[in-house]
Amino acid sequence: MANEARPCPCDIGDRFDYGGRGQEVQVGHIKAYVCKPSGSTDKAVIVIHDIFGWQLPNTRYIADMLTTNGYIAICPDFFVGQEAWKPSNDWASFNDWVKTRDAGKIDKEVDVVLKYLKDQCGAKKIGVIGFCWGGAAVQHLMLKNPHLKTGVSIYGVISRFEDKHTLLHPTFFIFGEKDDIIPLEQVTLLEQKLKQNCKVDYEVKIYPGQTHGFVHRKREDINPQDKPYIEEGRKDMINWLNKYI
């Protein structure tokens, strides 16, 4: 984390002015944003939001991007009605706030979402992606959920599961070189541990000069110097999903 006054500089980036192509639905005990491609498909991706919650336009933009690539995309409210973090909140209170939202305790919600995707959407092959808090949740799911095909952890907070590396499914890890939240030493250690313990396919990729949030929280038109890496990160994410779903 950055410092005690600002323990998580997750407000880096731009809020997209984006309405979304999908719709909000009730899935069991939680709400979710769902977008489906025009043609029929049995492939789906669960999108796990960052600390700013399931309604952040940026995250819905990525969900819709998945749909244009042929996937049913669903972004559930993994905070289960609890308030998402706001940029106006006092960062000094962040650690207490995040303790009540554990990325390693979403299994009940994931089971409900998987049932919905299979029963209501006809999905048979399901993957998962996640950003920051959601990236940590992806790592958790890749360690234990047998029903998912693959995962992409996008600047997931490694320290949440730093002692666990026996992944069940192929997993792609995306990091920014200049991420204040996830130091490169942590990324190097993750690579070493995966090499020693992981029996499935994985990849760890660091994008030059990029800060936290670059894949979904930076706009290409405002950050032209970052545009190639934003596009590369998104393309790599899609290519990984295409390979394993």
Strand and helix layout:
Blueprint: E1 23-27, E2 30-35, E3 43-48, H1 57-68, E4 72-76, H2 94-99, H3 107-121, E5 125-131, H4 133-144, E6 151-154, E7 171-176, H5 184-197, E8 202-207, H6 214-217, H7 227-244
Parallel strand pairs: 3-4, 3-5, 5-6, 6-7, 7-8
Antiparallel strand pairs: 1-2, 2-4
Q: Order of strands across the widest beta sheet?
A: 1-2-4-3-5-6-7-8
Number of strands: 8
Strand-residue fraction? 15-25%
Our measurement of the CA-to-CA distance between the termini, rounded to an integer number of angstroms, reads 34 Å
What general form does the structure show? globular
List the quaternary state of the chains. Answer: single chain
Task: Write the H/E string, N to C.
Answer: EEEHEHHEHEEHEHH
Q: Tell me what the CATH architecture is.
A: 3-Layer(aba) Sandwich
The CATH class: Alpha Beta
* CATH fourth-tier homologous superfamily: Alpha/Beta hydrolase fold, catalytic domain
Q: How many structural domains are formed by the residues?
A: 1
Q: What integer value in Å does the Rg equal?
A: 17 Å
Number of helical segments? 7
Low-pLDDT residue spans: 1-7
Q: What structural category do the secondary elements indicate?
A: alpha/beta
Structure report:
Helices cover 33% and strands 18% of the residues. It is α/β, with parallel strands linked by helices and 245 residues long. The chain has an eight-stranded mixed sheet with strand order 1-2-4-3-5-6-7-8, sandwiched between helices. Residues 1-7 have low confidence and may be disordered. This is Carboxymethylenebutenolidase homolog. It is found in: Cytoplasm, Cytosol.
